[in-house]
Amino acid sequence: MKKKVAIIGTRGVPANYGGFESLVENLLEHTGEQVEYTVFCSSLDVKRPSSASSDKNIRYKGAILKYVPLHANGAQSMFYDLLSLMRCLWGYDTVLVLGVSGCLFLPFLIPFFRCSKTRVIINIDGLEHKRDKWSRWARWILLKSEKMAVRYADTVIADNKAIADYVQEVYPAPSRRSDLKTIAYGGDHVWREVSQERQLEILQSMGLEKGKYAISVCRIEPENNCHLSLKAFSGQTKLPLLFIGNWEHSEWARALYQEYENTAGVRLSGAIYDLDILYTLRSNAALYVHGHSAGGTNPSLVEAMFFGKPIFAYDVSYNRESTFGQAAYYKDAEELAALLKAYQTASESGEETTAELPVSDGKRLAQLAGEHYCWKDIAAAYEALYK
Predict the structure, then answer these.
(1) Deepest of 104, 301, 319, 333, by most Cβ within 10 A of its Cβ?
(2) Strand 35-42 to strand 179-182: parallel, antiparallel, or no bridges (unpaired)?
(3) Model pLDDT for residues 211-221, shown as the tens digit of each residue
(4) Do the beta carbons of residue 242 and residue 283 sit within 8 Å?
(5) Low-confidence ranges of the chain (pLDDT < 70)
(6) Contact (Cβ atoms closer than 8 angstroms) between residue 167 and residue 124
(7) Which residue in 24, 296, 292, 301 sits closest to 167, CA to CA?
(8) Shortest CA distance to 98 belongs to which of 76, 131, 121, 77?
(9) Three-class SS state of 301
(10) CB 194 within 8 A of CB 280
């Protein structure tokens, strides 16, 4: 008999936004024969699959889709998660909660889950209460929600060893009933079959040459240190930085765009969702710059590892754990600029290292990604918890 598993906390599928949505997409892609997923989706944020025959019988990659008429993110996220949780109090063997937004209500809901013998598994994501973008009030709610998640879940999932260490330190075993598991994020979905002719066409359309630019892809948020990357690359022209992001979503992002849009050494692009274009731009870059300072395993960092390029990553424990210490790390724009200079010196001399810097080993990063960040293994690790 199949295990019935409900997934809540994301915008939904088909995925076109965010790490958790991609996680769900790939869990469905690699579903075992003994699991049947139901995915709760926002009817305001995602489109129903074109194959849907009716609102009552919508399936996608074998999963049942159910819709909630609220936005999954922003001010409505807490209530979106609450309504989703209330709709799966009965009828499921396991509820997989992605993120902690709705976990503030767990003390009231857990008795019902216990009564129906439904296990609650929560992926707590990347310590949302520490992100700069939230107001003081929002951070307080997110911290309380995290506490409730760790206290009441049957199992808590950390996607990074640094997150697991945080949970063990802040919530020692006597104060929590949940088991703690570390399951990473996958990245092998980035591979595409794009012809050389098509790749050349894409590069030419953007005025780029293979191996002669650096790349960064992220949401334009203060905690992603976009300003440091732009400052470090501005003014130099040997290896310009192509920075892809959602520059229109906030006043901070728009101001940053206006400051650097005409700066030498920097190329700014809006968000790109065409997977063939993204594959081409990442696979033909010389190196990847990753500025995230918050979260656990950042999806964009794991994905970048598969391309076998050197990686310059902001120096926090999450990034060091994700890259197994094989990237080059920086704490400010000056250190990043020094890494860039050393990389260029090493490249010009044909050496792998310089006196100042052991250059990040892209081939080793790709090998580690293949060993630790493949979706089939991650999907199997999730399904092992349902048993």
Answers:
(1) 301
(2) unpaired
(3) 999 999 998 99
(4) no
(5) 17, 51-57, 126-134, 174-177, 349-359
(6) yes
(7) 296
(8) 121
(9) helix
(10) yes
In angstroms, the CA 166 to CA 152 distance is 17
Place of tokens 């976009």: 226
Residues 6+ apart with CB under 8 A from 54: none
Helix or strand or coil: residue 289?
A: strand
3-state secondary structure of 266: strand
What pLDDT was estimated at residue 77? Answer: 87
Cα angle vertex 269, ends 308, 271, to 5°?
Answer: 80
Q: What pLDDT is recorded for position 354?
A: 45
Backbone angles phi, psi at 63, to 5 degrees: -95, 150
Q: In this predicted structure, what is the pLDDT of residue 134?
A: 66
Distances (CA, A) of 365 to 231, 267, 301, 322: 26, 26, 11, 10
- pLDDT on residue 174: 67
CA–CA separation, 27 and 40 (whole Å): 14
Task: Name the DSSP letter for residue 129.
Answer: G
- φ/ψ of 268, rounded to 5, equals -105, 130
- Return the pLDDT at 355: 44
- Say if residues 301 and 322 touch (Cβ distance below 8 Å): yes
Radius of gyration for the alpha carbons in the chain, expressed in angstroms and rounded: 21
Alpha helices in the chain (DSSP H): 19-29, 77-86, 106-115, 136-152, 161-170, 196-205, 226-233, 251-260, 275-283, 299-305, 317-322, 333-349, 362-372, 375-386
Cα–Cα distances (Å) from 225 to 120, 210, 229, 292, 351, in that order, read 35, 26, 7, 6, 30
Closest CA to 48 of 37, 60, 61, 62: 60
- Is the CB of residue 241 less than 8 Å from the CB of residue 216? yes
Question: How far is the first Cα of the chain from the last one, in angstroms, to the nearest whole number?
Answer: 12
